[in-house]
Write a structure and sequence with these properties.
The complex is a heterodimer of chains A (308) and B (267).
Chain A (H helix, E strand, L loop, with lengths): L1 H50 L4 H5 L12 H32 L4 H13 L4 H15 L6 H25 L3 H9 L4 H29 L3 H6 L32 H9 L4 H33 L5
Helix pairs in contact in A: 1-11, 3-6, 3-8, 3-10, 5-6, 6-8, 7-8, 8-11, 10-11
Chain B lengths: L16 E12 L2 E12 L3 E5 L6 H8 L9 E9 L4 E2 L7 H7 E4 L10 H10 L6 H14 L3 H4 L12 H14 L4 E5 L7 H14 L4 E5 L3 H7 L2 E6 L2 E7 H6 L4 H7 L5
Parallel strand pairs in B: 3-8, 3-9, 6-7, 7-8
Antiparallel strand pairs in B: 1-2, 1-4, 4-5, 9-10
The chains are: A mainly alpha (308), B alpha/beta (267).
The complex binds adenosine-5'-triphosphate and magnesium ion (MG).
């Protein structure tokens, strides 16, 4: 019958068209796998190589000339403290800048120039930040080759990320919410503090953590400002030691960080040090993953109560 | 309704004027959205703004609380005089925040803050510096009662405002507007996002509210304007075509154009 033939023809067309669906589906999965599998391979390889080396001593030992005694104590403490400074500096600066640009800045050419600059800052190679910091923080301000200098350098590095994340989170707030606040008689600052910041905090935090996860692995700028590769002491705890350290003395202590410790070990010829490097790399990746996991969790937690 | 049914302006003479547009005009950048509007807003009456889409109703309404100040490039001309203090709301030296503290607004789409029901209403009070807990509680309760929402939410004041139905959310926004004890409330198509039952309850509420406060409302619904308003202003492409007592405007409009719009021949 004529009709069934028509239906047959339609089915043929659909089947042919769907072949492309399948083709691109497979292509997409392959493209995805290139990235994911490469990372997984590296990660698993590093885990297998380094896992045997990871025990409690690895975390509590200073670096040593003998590979089996070498640990990452100074490195992980250094990384943690540098990250602390980075966060404390980048968050207020970045959030304030983002809020200003979104809620206060007049829309004129100057604001446009500033915006273009911020976008460009994100693309500046990190070593350039290192050079800038060497001149500015280390020598000009006299902070020395310290945790403070490193933290501020990385803060500069992630500042564009924090600003952009803040602006995006703020832009996601519907205009009608803002108008509702102003219609109640709120000032701009009241609107920012009571609405804009609370409703965008999830997005801001996510941006901050993703920025920090970037910064935690940065090596070039830290080397540029002169972090030590071999360091067998910890920054002074406040109010300990002889004479007692001040509250903020640790900020000015020399330090090393995880990626530098790794770099140092990989440049040694002995195989045992390569194992150490793999172990440290594995822990560094875990730290990064933990930070990203925290970002996802925070976003979920903070967004739960926010619907427009 | 106990308003006057007289037809001409002189018969309104016994009514107090709450606010008045004088040679009022408005520009969005280079685009003139309103021109030469002269119109009274009578005290403790409901005034409806009607007219085809894009004629400038929202623009006029949002001029009353200086909402346009939030965006660059907007310009007012003429005056909007508020009584009894004879203040020109548009004057440079008058702070828009002061204006918004006297004139509240309810938007087209319910826009509760992503906060608790209590905090939504309390917000109007908090921006005025009220911190005393029991005083806040009293005023929030009073406002929720005023917005006919108290009985539905009194056991869940800490729930999110967004968890309420659309109609309840709009009444929450009315409560928020009321909490400030405003002299005028502006409504921009407050029921256009609501079903008929929620619409009826908002209309009833507006009729009750005019005992205490002056109301200016934009509506696309002719029946709604006829039901709840005392005065009606018909606008067309940025101009005020006709203003008068609602019954008069609907039964015997002065202008042919008004009649065509009301009877649905265009618009
Ligand atoms: N932000 C703006 N910038 C430029 N022009 C605008 C802006 N807002 C509104 N307009 C224009 O001003 C005129 C009046 O708009 P308005 O929103 O006041 O109309 P309306 O009567 O409220 O319409 P509706 O019934 O559709 O809500 C329209 O021509 C509109 O395009
Ligand atoms: Mg409108």
């Amino acid at each position: 019958m004529m009709q069934t033939q028509d239906i047959q023809a339609i089915r043929d067309i659909i089947r042919r068209a769907k072949r492309w669906d399948a083709f691109f589906g497979v292509l997409g999965i392959l493209a995805l796998m290139v990235g994911v599998l490469t990372f997984m391979t590296l990660f698993v390889d590093m885990a297998i190589q380094g896992m045997g080396r990871i025990d409690a001593n690895f975390f509590t030992n200073f670096p040593s000339r003998r590979a089996e005694h070498a640990g990452i104590l100074s490195a992980w403490v250094g990384t943690l403290l540098v990250m602390l400074v980075t966060g404390l500096a980048a968050v207020p600066l970045g959030v304030a800048a983002g809020v200003y640009l979104e809620e206060y800045a007049p829309k004129n050419w100057l604001t446009d120039v500033i915006e273009i600059n911020i976008t460009n800052l994100a693309g500046v190679p990190s070593i350039v930040y290192g050079l800038l910091a060497l001149g500015l923080f280390v020598y000009q301000f006299g902070f020395g080759q310290s945790i403070l200098s490193a933290g501020l350098t990385l803060a500069l590095l992630i500042l564009p990320v924090v600003i952009v994340a803040t602006r995006e989170a703020i832009r996601a707030i519907p205009q009608i919410i803002r108008e509702g606040s102003y219609a109640c008689g709120a000032t701009t600052w009241q609107t920012v503090k009571d609405h804009i910041l609370p409703y965008s905090s999830a997005g801001i935090l996510t941006g901050v953590i993703i920025g920090m996860a970037r910064a935690i692995g940065e090596t070039a700028p830290i080397i540029t400002i002169g972090a030590l590769t071999f360091i067998a002491f910890l920054p002074p705890l406040p109010f300990t030691g002889v004479p007692p350290a001040g509250l903020l003395d640790w900020l000015f202590a020399p330090f090393t960080v995880m990626p530098i410790q790794m770099f140092n070990w990989t440049s040694r010829p002995e195989a045992a040090f390569q194992t150490n490097a793999a172990a440290a790399g594995f822990i560094l990746v875990l730290m990064t993953l933990a930070m990203n996991g925290t970002a996802i969790w925070l976003r979920y937690r903070l967004r739960k109560n926010i619907t427009w | 309704m106990n308003n006057a049914t007289a037809s001409n302006a002189s018969a309104h003479a016994n009514l107090a004027i709450k606010a008045e547009c004088r040679n009022f005009g408005f520009h969005y950048g280079d685009f003139q959205a309103l021109k030469d509007i002269n119109m009274p807003v009578y005290d403790k009456k409901v005034t409806a703004l009607i007219g085809p889409s894009g004629c400038g109703k929202s623009t006029l309404l949002r001029s009353f609380n200086r909402m346009h100040d939030l965006y660059p490039g907007n310009r007012y001309q003429g005056e909007i005089i508020m009584q009894p203090d004879n203040t020109n709301l548009l004057a440079q030296e008058v702070d828009p925040i002061e204006v918004r503290m006297r004139i509240s607004m309810v938007f087209q789409k319910p826009n509760p803050f992503p906060k608790s029901i209590f905090e939504n209403v309390a917000y109007s009070l908090r921006v005025r510096g009220m911190t005393n807990k029991s005083e806040l509680e009293d005023r929030v309760q009073h406002s929720l009662k005023g917005a006919a929402l108290w009985n539905e939410v009194k056991h869940r004041l800490n729930d999110l405002g967004a968890n309420l139905s659309g109609g309840q959310q709009q009444r929450l926004c009315i409560a928020r507007a009321l909490a400030a004890d405003p002299e005028i409330i502006l409504f921009d198509e407050p029921t256009s996002a609501l079903d008929p039952i929620a619409t009826a309850s908002i209309e009833e509420l507006i009729t009750e509210l005019k005992e205490k406060v002056t109301i200016l409302i934009v509506t696309h619904n002719m029946q709604q304007a006829a039901r709840i308003s005392d005065f009606t202003a018909y606008m067309y492409i940025g101009e005020l075509v006709e203003f008068g007592v609602t019954d008069q405007v609907f039964v015997k409009p002065q202008k042919k154009q008004t009649e065509d719009y009301i009877t649905g021949r265009f618009g």
